[in-house]
Amino acid sequence: MNIKLLAIGKTDSSDLERLVNQYENRLKHYIKFDLEVIPDIKNVKNLSESQQKDKEADAILKKLNSTDFVVLLDENGKQYNSVEFANYLQKIMNMGTKQLVFIIGGPYGFSDILYKKTKGKISLSKMTFSHQMVRLFIVEQIYRGFTILKNEPYHHQ
To answer: Is 73 part of any known ligand binding site?
Structure first.
């Protein structure tokens, strides 16, 4: 299985980017992982929130395959602890999924178009985080999930 993380907009913090890269490199020992950044939508001042979400959805949909297992990182999604998340990853792998795609949306969330095309929603917390921080948190949790599945000492309980 491959895992892809799609995110809207670039990270303006080199420190965060360095940390995300660190976990990306660690993940290579377990699974093929790609982080793909979709450029911010241009001229958003002239767009409503809904129009902006629809344009972001169009850009995201161009990056997806019909066989992808797509999960939105959404504040209203299901919350997991780390062990439960590891088991969720295992379940998706056991289904024979070729590619699992996590999506981080833009500042206003997701268009209804995307909600209809996905297999699920995950919330990392009841708190709100910047989209840049979410990249780090999800990549670290994916890494943590694989160390849990392999019974490696990274995760302590």
So the answer is: yes
